[in-house]
Amino acid sequence: MRLAELSERSGVPVGTIKYYLREGLLPQGERISATQAAYSEAHLRRLGLIRAMIQIGRIPVATVREVLGHVDDESLGTTFRLGAALWAMPQPPEAPADDPLTVQVTEAVDRFLGDMGWHNAREIGALSPTYRTLVTTIVTLTRLGFSRGAETLAQYAHLMEEVAQLDLDQLDTYEDDSEKVELAVASAVLYEPLLLALRRLAQEEHSTRRYGL
Amino acid sequence: MRLAELSERSGVPVGTIKYYLREGLLPQGERISATQAAYSEAHLRRLGLIRAMIQIGRIPVATVREVLGHVDDESLGTTFRLGAALWAMPQPPEAPADDPLTVQVTEAVDRFLGDMGWHNAREIGALSPTYRTLVTTIVTLTRLGFSRGAETLAQYAHLMEEVAQLDLDQLDTYEDDSEKVELAVASAVLYEPLLLALRRLAQEEHSTRRYGL
DNA sequence: CGTGTTTGGATAGTGGCACTTTCCAAGAAG
DNA sequence: CTTCTTGGAAAGTGCCACTATCCAAACACG
Q1: Distances from the Cα of A20 to the Cαs of A30, A43, A52, in angstroms?
Q2: Does B207 touch chain A if contact means CB atoms closer than 8 Å?
Q3: Residue boundaries of the structural domains of chain B
Q4: Domain HTH merR-type spans what residues (chains A, B) (predicted)?
Q5: Which residues contact A195 (CB under 8 A, 6 or more apart)?
Q6: If pLDDT is split at 50, 70 and 90, which confidence band does A7 have?
């Protein structure tokens, strides 16, 4: 299929597709002649993922390029490809490491990981952007006066652990490594709003039950 | 306290605070003289919330103004203030309503809400931005070929229902209405990355357990 | 009292980013 | 042969969250 058809089937304007090609988000089509190129179903699929990342995930173009680079890096094993892709996803700005509150929260988080039995996560520790995000959000919550005890955090953590189990069960249903990594990325981008939408719907449901309209 | 001190204690540059004042995110300080104004602890706290919404939640300035407008609207009852504030939060762009897949997914979601026993949520239905977000993300997942059956969705929904219960239990610990609404907003902005960070940590933990490094 | 500094407010400018527009020459279509 | 389409390069656009520059009033100090 040519550019015009790729645009029509995906619903993405031609100019925008050219931009993605230029920026290296979408691989070049197969050259048919000096001024003509052919695109495959794989391009269509990849374009869908790019749009989802940018429009739903609000991920910057440069970051999308980086993430997709890891997705396509066949020199790595699945686990590393997956980890590299997810670690490249954007994280909120971090709290300064020399802040006393940050130090205190970091220690609390370490203790908490131990209590949860998440020993692998604890070892990876500060290397993981996810870990630092956790510290940062707790620091901010504390600053705003909305922090909760470790017990409340643990309750949330146990629930999210079950969510993670469901996620991994789904990953297991895919044979192909590239598909696994793509699902993991799509899951980070699209399951997040989905989970949060479910949470808010449940909040709406139960708050009307508790307090009425 | 004057502007300079507000800036120092909050860590937000003076120019930026002026910008927030101009944009109506932060209420004006009390005028001391023609060229001098005094700011309170309330300003400091509100400024923290604004920063969290913009920097961590990546919420547009115009939206922050709208959300805070609802938070401060004392003419509404708590439930409505809370709902209005949360409904003003940004949602991903929606899928076109006339699309056949969208229609199909909408029906499936309605059935699903019935199965969950979320009758209130079902009645509010299309009015709720959250509901439409749910439809949109499922449509996108389906387009990408990553959709799952209603059963899987229900498993996630049950877990998020428990999360929502924890959220509401926390809300109950606050007496003051304004604080309740502020917590709800902070919860939407900051608990979301926190929950997602917990989910990813759990994923990392269990994927290394399942597949090793 | 005078002089230099600080303050809040108005206005204009900046930089980043995700596109769009415009242009062009080579090919395809009729 | 003429007309249209195509892919590619380069410059332009619009939005947005700040940021820099001025200014005159007012405070601080000797």
Answers
A1: 16, 11, 13
A2: yes
A3: 3-77, 100-211
A4: 1-70
A5: A163, B156, B160, B195, B196, B199
A6: very high
CATH 3.40.1650.10 corresponds to the domain A3-77: no
Alpha-carbon distance B156 to B158, whole Å?
Answer: 6
Separation CA A18–CA A24 (nearest Å): 10
Residue contact B193–A137, C-beta within 8 A: yes
Q: Report the alpha-carbon distance of residue A174 to residue A177 in Å, rounded.
A: 8
Judged against a pLDDT cut of 90, whether residue A124 lies above it is answered with: no
Q: B residues 164-203 near A, CB within 8 Å? A: 164-168, 170-171, 183, 186-188, 190-203
CB contact under 8 A, B160 and A192: no
Q: How far is A157 from chain B (nearest CA, A)?
A: 6
Size of the A and B interface in Cβ pairs below 8 Å: 226
Contacts of B92 in chain A (CB under 8 A): 55-56, 193
What 3-state class would DSSP assign to A38?
strand
Q: Is the dihedral angle over the CA atoms A18, A24, A27, A33 positive or is it negative?
A: positive
Q: Which pLDDT tens digit goes with each residue over A94-122?
A: 888 888 999 999 999 999 999 999 998 88
Quickly give A44 CA vs D2 C1' distance in Å.
35
